[in-house]
């Protein structure tokens, strides 16, 4: 094989190029994953589960909300103010796509190591 041609599997877009920068960031991926599993995650639960400060979590929630991936609902539980986070349909889709691209990336690594 000449060095001018890539193997057939390399002519398609590399899975790393398809990762979404908004979703792939560690904390935001964690938020999307926890919210997906919980269906509706309370701010304090997200903060403690992901070991974040309130300010740090708040900044990431703002990014995800502006991207249309989450909905934020504010209300009260008894007398205590609460904030809940849930995925939008776009958020569910973005998370599924991210996981699919990560699986493709893992398969490439495993296939390369098998040879």
SS strand fraction: 15-25%
Helicity range: 55-70%
Silhouette? elongated
Radius of gyration: 18 Å
Distance between the termini: 17 Å
Order of helices and strands: HHHEHHEEH
Could you give the topology of this structure?
Blueprint lengths: L7 H4 L9 H4 L1 H13 L2 E2 H8 L3 H13 L3 E8 L2 E8 L1 H26 L1
Antiparallel strand pairs: 1-3, 2-3
Structural summary, described in words:
It contains 6 helices and 3 strands. A hairpin with a 2-residue loop joins strand 2 (70-77) and strand 3. The protein has helices at 8-11, 21-24, 26-38, 43-50, 54-66, 89-114; strands spanning 41-42, 70-77, 80-87. The protein is elongated. The protein has 115 residues and is α+β, with helices and mostly antiparallel strands. It has a 3-stranded antiparallel beta sheet with strand order 1-3-2. Mean pLDDT is 90; it is low at 1-5.
What is this structure, in a nutshell?
59% of the residues lie in helices and 16% in strands. The chain is an alpha+beta fold and 115 residues long.
Q: Which terms would index this structure?
A:
single chain; 115 residues; alpha+beta; 6 helices; 16% strand; disordered N terminus
């Amino acid at each position: 094989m000449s060095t001018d041609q890539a193997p057939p599997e390399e002519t398609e877009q590399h899975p790393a190029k398809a990762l979404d920068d908004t979703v792939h960031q560690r904390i935001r991926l964690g938020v999307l994953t926890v919210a997906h599993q919980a269906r509706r995650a309370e701010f304090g639960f997200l903060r403690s589960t992901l070991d974040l400060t309130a300010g740090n979590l708040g900044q990431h929630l703002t990014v995800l909300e502006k991207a249309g991936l989450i909905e934020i609902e504010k209300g009260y539980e008894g007398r205590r103010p609460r904030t809940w986070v849930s995925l939008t349909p776009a958020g569910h889709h973005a998370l599924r796509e991210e996981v699919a691209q990560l699986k493709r990336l893992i398969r490439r690594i495993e296939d390369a190591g098998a040879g």
